[in-house]
Design a protein that fits this description.
mainly alpha, 8 helices, 0% strand
Length: 244
């Protein structure tokens, strides 16, 4: 809608201003988190990464991030083209994408709060992955604008909090000393999944331009994420990597 109103150049200027304001706010209000103990002297960052990669729970968490972020970025990148064969124009597709984000913002506040209250991560992660898996396929095949908005809100509400849960679970497993390294690896695997899925989608669409195979791919990836979430141990009170 913004691009139609003011053109692509000024749309990008607006994006720049929003990003610059956010960066300035961060510089002004963010403070270092000194809760974690410092890394022991002589500790190798490389060996730290090695211990994290060899941790079985973290391997599962990284795999879920690969699948989840891959699905999310693949969906949002190709959403306009996926919905076009169903009579959904670019502006409406953009609104659906916005609803997904808004739903995700709300969910990213509520779901982690509930998870903290009950001191459990795993059940909430499984529930988020399960609902996302159930919503992503119908969203790609829907022609009703109302249904798209409802599905988009539900998808965002459960999809985005899952990543917040994964971030905290990786930090809980890695321990305070290696939480930053674990987060880096989580982002690495998640963005790798995004690249793979985004590039895969155009190769699996039908000769007539349909994206039914892409919807099936998204559902399949999320189904695997659900299974992997069920295999994870509960991370509250979990042993940290390298600790007895």
């Amino acid at each position: 809608a913004l691009e139609e109103a003011v053109g692509l150049r000024w749309t990008m200027v607006v994006f720049f201003v929003v990003a610059a304001v956010a960066a300035l706010l961060f510089v002004g209000v963010a403070r270092p988190n000194t809760a974690g103990s410092p890394e022991p002297r002589g500790a190798s960052q490389t060996s730290g990464f090695g211990a994290l990669v060899r941790s079985r729970p973290l391997q599962v968490i990284f795999a879920i991030a690969f699948l989840g972020l891959g699905t999310f970025n693949g969906l949002t990148t190709w959403l306009e083209e996926i919905l076009a064969p169903h009579g959904i124009n670019a502006v409406t597709a953009g609104l659906v994408g916005g609803v997904i984000i808004v739903g995700g913002i709300i969910g990213a506040v509520i779901v982690p709060l509930l998870s903290d209250h009950y001191r459990r991560r795993k059940p909430f992660l499984v529930a988020c992955a399960l609902v996302a898996a159930a919503c992503v396929g119908p969203l790609c095949l829907q022609s009703s604008v109302t249904a798209l908005m409802v599905l988009g809100a539900a998808l965002g509400f459960f999809f985005m909090p899952a990543f917040a849960l994964l971030l905290d679970m990786s930090a809980q497993v890695a321990g305070a000393d290696k939480a930053g390294a674990a987060t880096s690896l989580l982002m690495l695997f998640g963005n790798a999944g995004a690249v793979v899925v985004i590039l895969a989608v155009p190769f699996i669409k039908s000769p007539t331009g349909g994206y039914g195979a892409a919807a099936a791919l998204f559902m399949g990836l999320m189904a695997v994420a659900v299974v992997l979430s069920g295999l994870l141990p509960e991370t509250f009170g979990a042993k940290t990597v390298g600790k007895p």
